[in-house]
Design brief:
269 residues, mainly alpha, disordered N terminus
Amino acid sequence: MERLHNGHPNHRIGQGRNDITLVSACLYFTPIVTRAGDDVSQTAISKWMREKGIVLEENFVFALERHIDHYKKSGVSASSIYSMLEIKHQYMAKWRTNPSTLTKGNLKYKTILRAANLFGLSEIETEELANKAGLSITHLNDLETAEVQKNEIFARHFNDIISTHNGKLKDLYDTAMVSERMFRYLRNGKHIKKEPLLAILLTLTQQIGTIQDCLKTAGFVLSKSLPNDTVIMWTIENEPNYSETSFAYHINTTLDQLGLPLLMTRAKD
């Protein structure tokens, strides 16, 4: 059996049908701000990762800083590069401590697209950078003009998926612990948020390809660099037939124990 450098069994997420591997040359796991906001949650996350033999991939901030350092070799100062990217050091600090944060005005999307232009990244390299932030730009070339079209495409895709649900739609969003308002937003392609979208998808299916395809139409992706996404992917791969509770609730139980954001928009009664 393959083993990681930390001596634990190498659990490869996706070894087989889903082909999602969560390994890299070294551990890129920086301190993050969790819902609990303390070191206890951070310790719990690290312990969970070690027990599963999981190594997170390079995160978004490390990747962006790597591109910045490389570009500095051309003689351009770091301050000039930050200016061209239209970001501030405090943005990087916020993303470093809370990598799942999506700031107002689609700042990360804009930063990724500017970085692609400035650093001459290929489409594949640009998508890889976006994926490290839990985002996807495959649907998006121009952030401003494509927004309405993107929402329409997502709404069609999402409604096609929920049409496979045999019961009442109220039962679906109640089971997923998503509010009726948020569910209505998702159906209309408005105010799309990753966590409630995932809650609905995971209540309907554990097919990683279906989930990723739908997420990408909304500009998201399950990332190999984010601990909360890692929990979801590991659970899909290793506990796909869990049936004691809804699958989304089962994942939320683990996320809650680790102090990570939950997949819902309202508390369970």
